[in-house]
Each structure stands twice: as C-alpha cells, then as structure tokens.
Amino acid sequence: MLPKHLLEKVRRGAQSAALIAALSAGAALADDPVPEKTPAQADAKEPAALTKEQLELIKTTIPKLGADDFATREKASATLKGLGKPVVPELEKALKEQTNAEVKSRLTAIIKTFTEPPPTARRIDPCPECGRG
Q1: CA-based diameter of the chain, in Å?
Q2: In 3-state terms, what secondary structure has residue 58?
Q3: Coil, helix or strand for 120?
Q4: Tens digit of pLDDT per residue, the chain (133 long)?
Q5: Distance from C-alpha of 75 to C-alpha of 66, rounded to nearest angstrom
Q6: Is the four-CA dihedral 54, 55, 56, 57 of positive or negative sign?
Q7: Are 122 and 23 in contact (CB under 8 A)?
Q8: First-residue to last-residue Cα distance in the chain
Q9: Helix, strand, or coil here: 31?
Q10: What are the domain boundaries of the chain?
Q11: Could you tell me which of 22, 92, 108, 126 has the fewest CB atoms within 10 Å of its CB?
Q12: For residues 120 and 25, is the Cβ–Cβ distance under 8 A?
C-alpha cells in the first residue's frame, strides 16, 4: 500500500503514464482496481489474417532459422517478426514439428515478442517526503 500523499498525487493526475503503470505494478492503489485492459488495448483491432503469400513465406523462412550462416538466421528471424502478431499461430504449429534446437529457440523467441507483455519501467525517483518510490 502506498502512502496517502502518493495516492493523492496519482489520483489527481500523475505527470506520466509510466509513473502510473509503475505504481500499479508495484502496489495496488487503495480503492482503484487496475483495469485488465487499457482503453487503447480494448479498442485495438484483432490482427489481420495472413495472405497465401505470407503463409508461403513463413513456410520457406522457418527452415532458414537453422541455417549454418548466422546472417541468414538473423534475416529469417527479422522476416518472421516483420509479419507481425498474425504469424504466431503458424509459428506455434511449426514449433511443435521442429527437431532442430536452433530453430526451436528462435521460434520461441519470436513468439515471445508477440505474446509476452513488454517490461514496465520499474525505477521511480524516491518521494522527497517519505523516501519511497
């Protein structure tokens, strides 16, 4: 639980969304439940379906994740990431079928970029009144 003077600062309108997010992640606000989705997330559209060309690109790119050449593997990873979140179901299917450890590792990393929440800012300057952040 945060000190009352910090709660008041947050309720009156903190100066940045990052401060609110960090406070919410570190401590629950007294009577204000943290919403599961922000308004921006609630309004976000579902990812578009992949085209036939994109599906074919995925099928030809996944084997390149296990190439001997590092630059080829990196380019393949970037290509798949560039297709965006709609690629995740296809990558998950491919992950189940793979035996190559390098390909599995890269597929897992790409999937995580789209499925795990981004890290939040944790550092907050201490409050001059109480010394807490």
Answers
A1: 60
A2: helix
A3: coil
A4: 566 666 666 566 544 455 555 555 554 444 444 445 544 444 455 556 889 999 999 999 999 999 999 999 999 999 999 999 999 999 999 999 999 999 999 999 999 998 887 766 566 667 777 777 5
A5: 11
A6: positive
A7: no
A8: 12
A9: coil
A10: 4-43, 52-115
A11: 126
A12: yes
Give me 91's structure tokens.
């990558």
Per the CB < 8 A criterion, the answer to whether 74 and 103 are in contact is no
Q: What is the pTM of this model?
A: 0.55
Please give the DSSP secondary-structure letter assigned to residue 37.
S
Q: Which two tokens stand for residue 106?
A: 């890269």
Whether the CB-CB separation of 69 and 60 falls below 8 Å is answered with no
Amino acid of residue 85? K
